[in-house]
Amino acid sequence: MFKVLFKILENFAKGGINSWMIHSGLTVVVFSGLDILITEGLDYASNALNGLPSVALQLALLAGIGEFFAIIGGALLTRVALVTAMNGVGLSYKGKPSQ
């Protein structure tokens, strides 16, 4: 946690406020685009699910397909938000949790 704080403070001390503002703007654009893409993908899957016969749709809903879409969509949007936020402040993301 302190490494992240010191990295941010070091970036500001080196005059990184300009680059931070530029990266933040790009982060908003990238996140907005990916948010729309994921939302449209979930809408497409939901509409395709509605095309099933009523008995199959009821069985899928009993099995929890609605919760499945909500969990996967939330996880994807959270991941996108975290990665773009880290890139926005100039931190690198290697894809593996630190230990």
Task: Give a concise summary.
This protein has 99 residues and is an all-alpha fold. The protein is built from 4 helices and no strands.
Would you kindly provide a written description of the structure presented here, covering whatever features stand out?
The protein is mainly alpha-helical and 99 residues long. Helix content is 81%, strand content 0%. It contains 4 helices and no strands. α2 (17-50) runs antiparallel to α4.
Largest sheet: none
Q: Radius of gyration over alpha carbons?
A: 19 Å
Care to count the β-strands? Answer: 0
- The best one-word shape is elongated
Unreliably modeled segments: none
Oligomerization status of the protein chains? single chain
Helix content: over 70%
Strand content: under 5%
Q: With helices defined by DSSP (H or I, 4 residues minimum), what is the helix count?
A: 4
SSE succession: HHHH
End-to-end C-alpha gap = 12 Å
Please give the structural blueprint.
Elements: H1 2-13, H2 17-50, H3 54-63, H4 65-88
List the defining traits of the structure above.
single chain, 99 residues, mainly alpha, elongated
